[in-house]
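Thread: Modeling a multi-component assembly for a lab meeting

Hi all, long-time lurker, first post. My supervisor asked me to bring a structural picture of a complex we are working on to next week's group meeting, and I have zero experience with this. I have the sequence lines for every component (305 residues in total). Could someone generate the structure of the whole assembly? Inputs are pasted exactly as I received them:
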Amino acid sequence: MEAMKAEVFTIEDLRRWRRLEPPALLGVMGDPVAHSLSPQMHNPALAACGIGGQYVRLHVRPEEFREALGALQRLGFAGVNCTIPHKFAALEAVGELDPAARRLGAVNTVIFREDGTTLGRNSDGPGFLRTVAEEFGRPVRELRILILGAGGGAGQAAAVQCAMEGCRSLVLTNRTSAKVEQVAAGLEGLPGAGVVSTVAWEAEALREVLPEIDLIVNGTSLGMKAEDPALLPEGSLESRHLVYDMVYKPLETPLVAAARAAGARAINGLPMLLWQGVQSFEWWFGRTAPVEVMRRGLQEATGWR
Ligand SMILES: NC(=O)c1ccc[n+]([C@@H]2O[C@H](COP(=O)([O-])OP(=O)(O)OC[C@H]3O[C@@H](n4cnc5c(N)ncnc54)[C@H](OP(=O)(O)O)[C@@H]3O)[C@@H](O)[C@H]2O)c1
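Re: Modeling a multi-component assembly
Sure thing. I ran the full set together rather than chain by chain. Output:
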């Protein structure tokens, strides 16, 4: 099998795997997976660190997940990332589970240890904290945070991480309110649980809370389509706001554009992708990741500056 020809590998490929050159060492399992930008970030990092291996995309269907995980371990992979829809199956499939991943309810990084055991972790949470610290220069625990779409997968993970870290205040909202109420109830017992509140998914409710917010996080998929409605009421953004949009297609989302027009600092979802990748790399190899090499890989793949 030629690594470069077959850009995306399948379970069939794993069953009759022959050695690639450079050997496959890491990968991402997803369904779909062809769009994943992780190879463009991890392959330059492996090269920069002198690690002779490559990071590949693996198209694995839900019913193939356990077999694929076993195959990767047998083939000598160091680890694998799990993306939609495998983050929950991975939680059940690993031998050992990191307590933070258990709390986040999902595994996106599997580490195959030399003694044959597997450890499941979640780099989305720590990646979220590092994104805020590195891109805005502020630790989450100092901030009053609003999460839009806190009932979705990414928004919920951010909410759990903020509550684990103990931020100053945490306001959650979601179009389907039952989901966000459930997320808020699930934060019970975490250091930040006492500062959590929910608000209605309505312009006036958001206008009211925004003066008391430092960091606005968009965890919804709004902004990906040109016809999507605006996330925040007009004129409600201030220059002191920090805006973190998890969406990165388009690179300048309407929320990022609105924030910049208001003089606020804003980032799209690529720094989040970067910092979770940095975290996974550091777990796999127990060394500092070459962050700028990884950032450049993403920039070259997307045109992001
Ligand atoms: N940058 C990164 O590394 C990264 C990582 C993960 C995800 N993301 C991005 O984050 C976004 C959410 O992903 P996910 O995996 O969390 O998806 P998800 O679990 O399907 O959640 C989608 C969220 O968007 C909300 N939503 C969808 N359409 C809406 C609308 N018309 N009006 C209001 N709210 C709406 C949903 O609200 P309801 O609950 O009411 O349906 C829910 O809160 C996606 O854009 C994804 O690309 C980025």
